[in-house]
């Protein structure tokens, strides 16, 4: 499936979860509901996927976990905060670089309208 079609399905799922729950809950609640919604839409995903750090040829388990990886192609970083800060963007971009993934969605559920809580981040992979 095309990465843009996957992205569109993910955004639709996030909007559906936000419509049902509204803002103000913990990230973990949104994560569980979003995973259920993704499965209803026929998307494969892995939640809390470990992300090791490779440093000078050594693989280190530093305890990083990706919130959700959809179709082995898109990383979802979920938030429930008052405002997306630059560090949140940097966090997702770093996850993209460490994993070699090209697309990530930063989803902040603590907004009145979900479309205002969606940020698409592209990792320009080296060719």
What percentage of residues falls in helices of 4 or more residues? Answer: 25-40%
Helix/strand order, N-terminal first: HHEEEEEHEE
Strand sequence of the main sheet, in spatial order? 1-4-5-6-7
Tally of separate domains: 1
| Gyration radius, rounded | 14 Å
Q: Please report the number of helical segments.
A: 3
Query: How far apart are the termini?
Result: 22 Å
Strand content: 25-35%
Number of strands: 7
- The average pLDDT is 95
**Unreliable residue stretches:** none
Largest sheet: 5 strands, mixed
Overall spatial form: globular
Class inferred from helices and paired strands? alpha+beta
Short description:
With 127 residues, the protein is of the alpha+beta class. The chain is 37% helix and 28% strand. The protein has one domain.
Structure description:
The structure is a single chain. By secondary structure, the chain is α+β, with helices and mostly antiparallel strands. It has one domain. The chain contains three helices and seven strands, in the order ααβββββαββ. It has helices spanning 3-21, 27-40, 86-99; strands at 45-50, 53-55, 58-60, 65-70, 74-79, 103-108, 118-122. Helix 1 (3-21) packs across helix 2 (27-40). The model has no long low-confidence stretch (mean pLDDT 95).
């Amino acid at each position: 499936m095309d990465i843009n079609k996957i992205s569109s399905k993910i955004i639709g799922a996030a909007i559906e979860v936000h419509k049902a729950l509204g803002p103000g809950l913990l990230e973990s609640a949104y994560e569980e509901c979003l995973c259920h919604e993704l499965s209803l839409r026929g998307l494969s995903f892995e939640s809390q996927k470990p992300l090791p750090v490779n440093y000078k040829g050594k693989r280190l388990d530093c305890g990083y976990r990706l919130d959700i990886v959809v179709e082995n192609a898109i990383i979802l970083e979920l938030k429930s905060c008052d405002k997306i800060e630059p560090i949140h963007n940097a966090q997702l971009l770093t996850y993209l670089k460490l994993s070699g993934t090209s697309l990530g969605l930063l989803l902040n559920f603590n907004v009145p309208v979900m479309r205002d809580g969606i940020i698409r981040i592209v990792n320009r992979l080296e060719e």
